[in-house]
């Protein structure tokens, strides 16, 4: 089992490399996939940290997690983009529109390139 985790950690490094390649490519389609992946990965990691005592009762949790992460990351499935489009984007729009209305609907850019991730 320890060898499996070593392999998975090396695969995580490949995900980082693929993310860098996506940022450097002219297409924004792969950017969306990898940004969605990292958003979902961080959310799953935080949830897992909080729910660890409960998850320890499910012996298949790590197998399910690996399968889910593979589905998210593999470009054939584009799982991360699918989950982001179907679930995350709706929640962000719902809560960000309420925040914008509460602020008078105005948003002020703090930097000339604010909102442009390629400017940095």
TrEMBL record:
Identify its membrane topology class: Multi-pass membrane protein
Question: For the region Disordered, what residue ranges are annotated?
Answer: 96-120
Q: Where is the signal peptide?
A: none
- What domain of life does the UniProt record list for this protein's source? Eukaryota
* Subcellular location, record wording: Membrane
Sorted alphabetically, which InterPro entries does this protein's record hold?
TB2_DP1_HVA22
Q: Which GO terms describe its cellular component?
A: membrane
- Record family assignment: Belongs to the DP1 family.
Q: What is the recorded name of this protein?
A: HVA22-like protein
Please report the organism this UniProt entry assigns to the protein: Spirodela intermedia (Intermediate duckweed)
Query: What is the phylogenetic placement of the source species in the record?
Result: Eukaryota, Viridiplantae, Streptophyta, Embryophyta, Tracheophyta
